Amino acid sequence: KPALPTMSVPAGETPMSHLRALVWAAVPERYPEHSPKELTPEGRSRIERELNVIEEKDFPGYFLIVHGIVDEARRRGILCQGRGSAAASVVCYLLGITAVDPILYGLPFERFLATTRTEEPDIDVDFDSGRREEIIQWVYDEYGRENAAQVANVIQYRPKNAVRDMARALGHSPGQQDAWSRQVERWGLDLSPVPDHDIPEQVVAYADELLRAPRHLGIHSGGMVLTRRPVGEVVPVEHARMEKRTVIQWDKDAAAWMGLVKFDLLGLGMLSALRHCFDLVREATGEEWTLDSLPKEEPAVYDMLCRADTIGVFQVESRAQMGLLPRLQPREFYELAIQIALIRPGPIQGGAVHPFVRRKLGQEKVTYAHPKLEPVLSRTLGIPVFQEQLIQMATTLGDCTADEADTLRRAMGSKRGLEKIDSIRESLYTGMHRHGLDGETADRIYAQIQAFSDFGFAESHSLSFALLVYASSWLKLHYPAAFLAGLLRSQPMGFYSAATLTADARRHGVEVRRPDIRLSGATETLEAVDPAATGGTGRESCAHQLPARPPGVKPDPFDPKAPDETLAHRRDGRHAVRLGLAGVTGIGEKTAERIVAEREAHGPYRDLNDLVRRTDLTAAQVEALATAGAFDSLGLQRREAIWLAGSAAEDRARYLPDTVVAVQPPLFGDQTSYEILTADLWA
Predict the structure, then answer these.
(1) Which of 38, 119, 451, 540 is 20 to 30 A from 135, comparing alpha carbons?
(2) Same-domain pairing of 42 and 72
(3) How many structural domains comprise the chain?
(4) What stretches in the chain show pLDDT beneath 50?
(5) What's the whole-model pTM score?
């Protein structure tokens, strides 16, 4: 088994003793004495139990490496957060890898790591997608380029590309290849011909033989392997297309079989958006916020969520989530985690959504198929919502062995999940029969377990994502201008276009100003407006500074008839959003940065000719800026600017000034509101 890189630890310590020291040193900060979070004897026992398992399985190096990566990211100001099953570990929480307290929520450590499991632990860490490459390159530099590599994805043939490639190999035209590949999209996952198709039998037959064969290698979304000796001595390695990256020629399963340990360093667009939000708020108002410092459990945030005012909000902006929010009405953090988990294929196909909503609203009595399920399902009103609950149901009622429970865990969300669950079907039914569960009840429980073969969230994963849902909701409520600017800087991401996000911000009272050649940055910025024009700014302007809710006290229910006070909570009302030049069609980030750098170095642009001579823009780029209204500050209407764009684009720096024939634009009438809207959407 390839060993991990040797960790640098203080003199006289081993990796395990150093890990113990780091964990216990973090306890006073995470669990302060004489506070509601003070660590109980049971909590101390759990920490010790986790450390003992880590020591028994000889994994301290893995945890120290992940801790080091996360620590470096935070030192650089890069937002990051662990998720997935790792959030069920108190050790990960104390090391700062994850942000969810497993003791508070009773998360089972065995979902993450157990003595009965043979594979390595798996810690997924999300990083700000805009700065993730910094961390990847730091890992290469820290552990050596020969000792680090990314994991490959083996892309297999599917019906569409199998037909396309085989048609190309047999000499058919590109147009015919495209037409036939589009036809088979409707055939499903195999190449069983449908009536009235016109694809030659030879193409279909040969394409069918290609299905599930390797087609090409891709790069895993975040997996990296680290070894003490060069990775190339263990598995074949190749240079990736991306500069300064190498990738092994095996996928994650083959790498795990070889004993290579995978580290998942993933990029998350919402973390990038939140980083931009925090930066913009600090620059505009002087207020410093972090993910840890945001006020917790603010009722107004949940009011906004209950109204489904969630365009741009992480994980709950889809139409399905927006449809469920007013019905479920989450009023506290754990309910938010349930909200996220419900709209997934597993709970939906398992019939969990509607029964849970009815029970939450008191329209249906909370019942359990068996008394032993009450401890497992009580927090979710008798309805299985999370992966852990399905595994506990299988072990509690199905008498699953440790190996069978592990098979079930691996099956959830995997490519062959249904096949793996079916392999323990007989054992599950036998166990349920011993507990007096037969017929329809047993079938319903098995169907619920089977449904999670598609995809469902682990409770620890859902709680981790709920932190980002709350953070993005809080920023949307209190800093809608900064929130919009942060989202636009992080595009593409989420469900909605920049135009939809902008329209939603305007509904929240945000003034959004068009790109301007003299005023815009490369990306979106906040501009001060007349303080008398809108609401105040700063924490003192927040309408409702409510005290924290005492522990054990349930929050007030949502009143849909109460007036919407969202605007009263705004704290950046003295600022408008100025759209950046990079968002204009055909400009892009590099060109926008060049325009802004030239302006800052040598002063504002005097006219279109001056712009072209100094930045070498093409005619199409000048026309795009004109269509976006970026030359309004030069005294040019859009039609005038578009008219002048062609002649201005001829005036290059290589020509003597004022030697290009000038074009006098005719007198144009004012644009209609429809024409302005159309131009804004196009640009």
Answers:
(1) 119
(2) yes
(3) 5
(4) 534-544
(5) 0.87
